[in-house]
Amino acid sequence: QCETREEMVKRFRETPPEELFNVEKVRIVGLKEAQKPGALHTSTFCSVCGEKIADDQQVYRGGKPVCKACAIGSYYEVIDE
Ligand SMILES: [Zn+2]
Questions:
Q1: Ligand 1 centroid, distance to 73 Cα (angstroms)
Q2: Count of domains for the chain
């Protein structure tokens, strides 16, 4: 299937949403306040690179907030003493 990006956008625009998506009623379970859509709820700074971490995306290493990139990229773990 060779549909260009423009054709896809056009198709999405012309097709009713019920045909494009499977619309179902769902109950959201276990979602943190910060994960809900809307404005930024919280922001922290990464203790490794100093990058701003939006909406509770931080991981804690040794009790300090670390961004996902630093958390995944690091080969060591800070020991909390
Ligand atoms: Zn970082």
A1: 9
A2: 1
